[in-house]
Design brief:
Distance between the termini: 78 Å
Number of domains: 2
Helix content: 25-40%
Shape: globular
Order of helices and strands: HEHEHHEHEEEHEHEHEE
Strand content: 15-25%
Oligomer: single chain
Largest sheet: 6 strands, mixed
Length: about 280
């Protein structure tokens, strides 16, 4: 992780601790390079998970460090999720890191697990929200005092004005829900948890990148997720694994997270022309 507030508390005793690469863009390059090299030597492979709201200076520094190390053992993963969803996904990968999964499969499992996350927020304004389609009427309503909106950013964008009976389409399987409160007083998420039949709600501090992602600090962010390690493991191992043709790692999906290689496209062989035979 690139910030400490994205490293969620361990889900169980098997969850691997998070490594926080803080202040990468503020420290001398050689210090950050030494730290990353030490981590690779210690763990073998490194998966750096960060959100799309992570400052570009930090992301550029990560790519610079990866290039200087000349190593395919560092994977940079920026899923299209809000910051709290990214933090949840990173913890799920930390849970799976205790299992007998190869580095390539573990890293590429992130893309698979995003499909089972339901990430959203209650917002006091959608005037600066550009991550989810917002209609003109919702923009106008956001200027009315006391207006609140429920937004689901993933897996399918939804936006509703909070009125009696308002809800969001939730998962078709049982989940837990994580809640992070910003500068907004709202109990609506608790009612949504009841509609989604979640096992329970757990509260964590709001990630510092959340107001940037959502366009406002007047918010309550939430994420529905699978917490059971055995379920996560079964999801990952049920998918067919293939070998990356470039670096040789076992992966799932159509792209290797470490070297970014995709399977080669083989052009279909052209049919052989029929031989013209001259009558004898």
């Amino acid at each position: 992780m690139t910030s400490a507030d994205m490293a969620l508390p361990a889900q169980d005793e098997r969850t691997m601790p998070a490594v926080v690469l803080s202040g990468l863009d503020q420290r001398p390059l050689d210090h950050a390079l030494t730290e990353l090299h030490t981590l690779i030597e210690q763990y073998g492979y490194l998966v750096v998970v960060c959100s799309s709201a992570t400052p570009e200076s930090v992301v550029r520094r990560l790519y610079t460090l990866r290039s200087l190390l000349e190593s395919d053992r560092v994977a940079l993963f920026r899923p299209d999720l809000p910051p709290l969803g990214v933090a949840v996904l990173a913890r799920q990968l930390r849970q799976l890191a205790s299992c007998d999964l190869s580095p390539g499969v573990l890293a590429s499992a992130g893309r698979l697990l995003t499909h089972y996350l339901h990430a959203g927020a209650v917002l006091g304004s959608v005037a600066k929200l550009d991550r989810v389609p917002v209609g003109l009427k919702a923009h106008a309503r956001s200027w009315m005092p006391g207006s609140q909106f429920a937004v689901l950013a993933h897996p399918e964008p939804q936006l509703v004005k909070i009125v009696p009976g308002a809800t969001l389409k939730g998962p078709e399987f049982s989940t837990w829900m994580l809640v992070a409160k910003g500068q907004l007083q709202s109990d609506w998420v608790g009612g949504l948890g009841g509609q989604w039949s979640v096992h329970g709600l757990r509260e964590v501090p709001l990630p510092a990148e959340s107001p940037v992602w959502w366009g406002t600090g007047r918010m309550v962010e939430f994420c529905g997720y699978l917490a059971d390690l055995s379920v996560l493991y079964q999801l990952v191992t049920s998918v067919r694994q293939t070998g990356c043709h470039w670096c040789g790692l076992d992966v799932i999906g159509d792209r290797c997270v470490f070297c970014s290689a995709t399977p080669p496209v083989h052009e279909p062989a052209a049919p052989r022309a029929l031989e013209q035979r001259t009558p004898a």
